[in-house]
């Protein structure tokens, strides 16, 4: 028991330092921006005080260090929130000056309080040493031994070698239930919205560090082999959850009545049926993240927690698994959460409420969210948006199935509208996944103006006009051609409900990293065969023969990932001269799948997915040879495939030199072209 307590003390100290250090760095960064204006002296004063307190604690740290770090952390939080509210004009210059003066007094008092506590602690330590016998051991050695025994080795290594950025990113995993898989891209966007990391590159590196240290497990991978979903092992999650809560970094709660905390910074709610809406004891004025998982609570709970006037400085709002939002809720978000950077929710598919209808459109008031970087409404039906959304100055990721309001159709009378000028000159939108092309004007005409676009998803509806398809063809041509100057572009087109003939009009040489086509094709698109730099290609329900597909792919020499999906896929014969650089292949047959992989074919393959519940292909037969694929790591099968087939594959995997993993897929549907 004593060893466990000592280990937790060491872990608590590391976590406390990381959280406080990150808070101070964030506050100082914002103060430096203010120091160039009218409040230069005040900002410099607060910077000096924060760094002085931080240095003092670091120099004279001891067993009570985490206690001294708490007031420093809270002071930094208060400074950061004060500056943020002033920056978006939530507070007037007079109110801001008053708050800054109060923070200066508080900073001095905090420093003096910490010095007094440290002086008392030093005297107590000297007194304790005087009574301590020579043969009672060394506390530091005991703590180190305790850490060795009680904290997972991977976490010990991270605590000893990594910066506070890694630790804060790790603590953010406490948001998710132990059975919830965190998706890579939304996780990184949350980190960025919270300011836990500076730049996407740093966020990617932090996640890579956590995975390589085996602190975070990879649950699923993307087409290119990168992590798609992840989660920490249960022992790691237990080790960090208590410290995350004690340092006021993240609170995990299933009933608001149990949340006995005066000031919450980040809150993850998992309401049960007994959850109440009693929020009286909790102060949400400094809340930065609110995420609600599962939807089993009573309506009164949601009405209480969705009172957005309580969240003055909220940065991240994730309501994807919450009750559907009505127009009143969405308006309250737009009018109250002016610091919001990440917003995720889902519209209800069936709207039968007359008194307060569930919305399927984003209101014009979204223009008030000037800091918004991500809007994610994926899983909803078609969502109507206005030009105000597209003119948000910091919007980078627009995720859902969108169409432009018909009320904004007057935007297309000429090329001089304010929206068109903004998209050409100021827009930072990078990912549009995606928009609907029907018979109305909108995104087909605007796509070619979006100067920073990198990833696009397009749905072509059954009523898509010839004029809109022609504009889409022109926009795609420009998108591919511009990819020659900037690598890494991704394009996904779903034309299952209309003719894919418009793709045959695209004549362009350029570059894409990833292309997904879903829908019937009369011929292999010529532009695909001319693409440079393409590493990922998905062809779904095209009805092309194997020979047509093989001829079209013959020039794509650097292809690393190939996915083919049909109702009846095959027969396919993959020979040694085909796809010599291919690393991953996914073959989907909804009804049947017939494939032959000859000896010496696919030498670089690490992943083979054969998704068909009627699969009757066995390894080690003349039809499928895998023994020569020395780097093979995984084989994925349909969950309803015959158990005898699975056992044959498992036996072949055990006999393989690399012992690849054999597992069943979660789900594959006709929307397989989706990114």
Structure commentary:
The chain is an alpha/beta fold and 675 residues long. It contains 19 helices and 21 strands. It has helices at residues 2-34, 40-59, 65-87, 93-131, 139-150, 153-161, 164-171, 184-194, 200-212, 234-246, 299-305, 327-336, 387-390, 418-425, 443-446, 466-482, 526-529, 546-553, 643-655; strands at 182-183, 217-221, 227-231, 251-253, 266-269, 289-292, 316-318, 342-344, 374-376, 383-385, 397-404, 431-437, 455-460, 490-494, 514-518, 536-540, 561-574, 584-597, 607-611, 634-637, 661-664. It has an 18-stranded parallel beta sheet that branches. Strand 11 (397-404), helix 14 and strand 12 (431-437) form a beta-alpha-beta unit. The two termini are 50 Å apart. Mean pLDDT is 81; it is low at 1-8, 126-150, 351-359 and 668-675.
Average pLDDT works out at 81
Give me the Rg, rounded: 28 Å
Shape: globular
Largest sheet: 18 strands, parallel
Helix-strand makeup class: alpha/beta
Task: Report the uncertain regions.
Answer: 1-8, 126-150, 351-359, 668-675
Fraction of residues in H or I helices: 25-40%
Number of strands: 21
Alpha plus pi helix count:
19
| Head-to-tail CA distance between termini | 50 Å
Strand content is 15-25%
* Oligomer state of the chains in this structure: single chain
Summary?
This protein is an alpha/beta fold and 675 residues long. It is 38% helix and 17% strand.
Which SSEs are present, and which pair or pack?
Blueprint: H1 2-34, H2 40-59, H3 65-87, H4 93-131, H5 139-150, H6 153-161, H7 164-171, E1 182-183, H8 184-194, H9 200-212, E2 217-221, E3 227-231, H10 234-246, E4 251-253, E5 266-269, E6 289-292, H11 299-305, E7 316-318, H12 327-336, E8 342-344, E9 374-376, E10 383-385, H13 387-390, E11 397-404, H14 418-425, E12 431-437, H15 443-446, E13 455-460, H16 466-482, E14 490-494, E15 514-518, H17 526-529, E16 536-540, H18 546-553, E17 561-574, E18 584-597, E19 607-611, E20 634-637, H19 643-655, E21 661-664
Parallel strand pairs: 4-5, 5-6, 6-7, 7-8, 8-9, 9-11, 10-11, 11-12, 12-13, 13-14, 14-15, 15-16, 16-17, 17-18, 18-19, 19-20, 20-21
Antiparallel strand pairs: 1-3, 2-3
């Amino acid at each position: 028991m004593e060893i466990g307590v000592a280990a937790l003390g060491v872990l608590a100290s590391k976590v406390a330092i990381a959280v406080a250090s990150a808070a101070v760095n964030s506050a100082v960064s914002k103060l430096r921006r203010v120091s160039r204006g009218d409040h230069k002296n005040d900002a410099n004063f607060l910077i000096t005080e924060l760094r002085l307190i931080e240095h003092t604690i670091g120099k004279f740290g001891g067993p009570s260090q985490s206690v001294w770090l708490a007031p420093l952390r809270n002071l930094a939080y208060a400074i950061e929130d004060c500056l943020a509210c002033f920056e978006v004009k939530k507070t007037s210059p007079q109110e801001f000056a008053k708050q800054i003066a109060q923070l200066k007094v508080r900073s001095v008092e905090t420093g003096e309080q910490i010095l007094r506590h440290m002086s008392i602690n030093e005297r107590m330590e000297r007194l304790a040493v005087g009574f301590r016998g020579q043969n009672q051991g060394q506390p530091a050695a005991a703590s180190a031994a305790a850490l060795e025994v009680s904290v997972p080795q991977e976490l010990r290594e991270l605590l000893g070698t990594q910066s506070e950025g890694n630790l804060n990113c790790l603590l953010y995993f406490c948001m998710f239930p132990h059975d919830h898989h965190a998706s890579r891209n939304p996780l990184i966007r949350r980190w960025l919205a919270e300011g836990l990391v500076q730049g996407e590159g740093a966020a990617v590196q932090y996640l890579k560090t956590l995975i390589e240290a085996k602190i975070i497990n990879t649950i699923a991978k993307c087409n290119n082999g990168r992590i798609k979903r992840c989660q920490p092992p249960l022992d790691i999650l237990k080790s960090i959850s208590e410290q995350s809560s004690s340092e006021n970094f993240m609170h995990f709660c299933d009933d608001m009545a149990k949340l006995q905390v005066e000031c919450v910074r980040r809150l993850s709610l998992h309401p049960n049926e007994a959850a109440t809406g009693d929020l009286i004891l909790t102060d949400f004025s400094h809340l930065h993240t609110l995420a609600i998982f599962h939807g089993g609570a009573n309506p009164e709970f949601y009405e209480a927690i969705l009172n957005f006037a309580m969240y003055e400085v909220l940065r991240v709002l994730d309501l994807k698994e919450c009750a559907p939002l009505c127009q009143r809720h969405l308006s309250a978000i737009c009018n109250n959460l002016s610091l919001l950077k990440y917003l995720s929710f889902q519209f209800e598919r069936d709207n039968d409420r007359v008194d307060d209808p569930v919305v399927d459109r984003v209101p014009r008031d979204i223009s008030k969210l000037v800091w918004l970087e991500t809007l994610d409404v994926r899983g909803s039906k078609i969502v109507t948006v206005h030009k105000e959304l597209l003119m948000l100055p910091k919007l980078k990721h627009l995720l859902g199935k969108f169409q432009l309001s018909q009320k904004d159709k007057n935007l297309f009378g000429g090329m001089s509208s304010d929206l068109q000028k903004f998209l050409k000159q100021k827009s930072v939108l990078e990912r549009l996944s995606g928009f609907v092309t029907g018979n109305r004007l909108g995104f087909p005409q605007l796509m070619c103006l979006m100067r920073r676009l990198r990833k696009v998803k397009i749905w072509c509806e059954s009523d898509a006009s010839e004029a809109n398809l022609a504009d889409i063809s022109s926009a795609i041509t420009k998108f591919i051609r511009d990819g020659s100057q900037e690598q890494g572009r991704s394009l996904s087109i779903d034309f299952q409900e209309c003719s894919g003939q418009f793709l045959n009009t695209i004549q362009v040489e350029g570059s894409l990293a990833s292309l997904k086509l879903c829908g019937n094709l009369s011929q292999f698109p010529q532009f695909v065969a001319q693409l440079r730099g393409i590493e990922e290609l998905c062809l779904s329900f095209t009805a092309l023969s194997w020979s047509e597909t093989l001829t079209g792919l013959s020039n794509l020499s650097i292809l690393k990932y190939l996915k083919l999906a049909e109702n009846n896929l095959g027969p396919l014969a993959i020979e040694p001269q085909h796809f010599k650089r291919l690393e991953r292949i996914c073959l989907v047959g909804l009804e049947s799948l017939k494939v032959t992989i000859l000896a010496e074919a696919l030498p670089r393959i690490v992943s083979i997915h054969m998704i068909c519940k009627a699969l009757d292909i066995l390894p080690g037969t003349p039809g499928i040879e895998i023994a020569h694929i020395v780097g093979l790591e995984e084989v994925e099968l349909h969950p309803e495939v015959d158990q005898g087939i699975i056992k044959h594959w498992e036996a072949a995997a055990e006999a393989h030199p690399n012992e690849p993993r054999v597992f069943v897929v979660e789900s594959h549907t006709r929307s397989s072209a989706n990114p």
